[in-house]
Amino acid sequence: MKIIGFGGRDGGQLKGLCDICVIAPTYSMEELEDIHLCYCHALVTCIREMLKDIWDIEVINAPDRGFRYALFDFDGTLSLLREGWQGIMIPYFTEVIASVTEKPDLEAIAESVTEFVDLLTGKQTIFQCMRLDEEVQKRGGPAVDPYEYKSEYLRRLMACIKGRHEALKNGKSQPEEHLVPGCKAFLKILRENGVKLYLASGTDEVDVLAEVKLLGLSDYFDGGIYGAKDTITDCSKEVVIRQIMEENHIDGAELISFGDGYIEVQLVKDIGGYAIAVATDEARRKGVDAWKRKRLLSASADAVIPDFTGAERLFNFISGGK
Fold this sequence. Notes:
This protein is an alpha/beta fold and 322 residues long. It has three domains: 4-51; 59-80 and 179-320, 3-Layer(aba) Sandwich (Rossmann fold), CATH 3.40.50; 86-169, no CATH class. Helix content is 48%, strand content 13%. Helix 5 (125-138) runs antiparallel to helix 6. It starts with a strand and ends with a helix. The model has no long low-confidence stretch (mean pLDDT 91).
């Protein structure tokens, strides 16, 4: 055992008994105690900084069965290509609502927008744009085709992430730089153990297919890859879940999901499936995003993971609850 002592003056007899003796170099007892408080505060700060990236599987409800089918979200769960999309959508929506509001309180509007954008994350982008249209009309603004809002949002988003796509295409960056850590290894283990994999995203299907290919994930999803289609007004993930159950004649208990959106957690929980929240800090590519974790727990996630690091251990957990 390594012994660390907190001493004062010149360390006294304690100094010779410790591996490390942290000394407050004063003969004043009051100053000595105050300096020790500073040392303690510094240590706690350092420990907290270290611990934020040491995060195991957070278990709320342990799995009590194996799973034959797995449903994955894409953006934020596997792919980081669109990291920062909320930072595009929320200011844009706030700007639109403020333009039709007399004496707009930008902070209050942004808070309201953040709430409904977050609540609808996991559904197709058009649902968030439909809600924007409702909010505009509530304030006396004109009715606008939600697809116009969607088009402008996507234009702004693509202007920000275009460089990531180009870097992948010309080899200046590698897929692993834009993937949630460990996800490829975990997908491979699931496939090798006979789990059928599905991917469902709220992003337009043509874009999902292109980005899945760019990231080298196309071959993992034998169940299919699904994205948003303008012809579908139902929640695409709900459609996919129904399809999985009907085609395979299964009940929800055989399905496990991995996602970072409120919607998919609730959908899977509603049919009796097991929902794992992926609360990755996307900007840092490690650790847990505390805000994301909190909202996914409020959606009744069964477990929370920071990413897929330790793929074998994660598979053992969902297979046997250990």
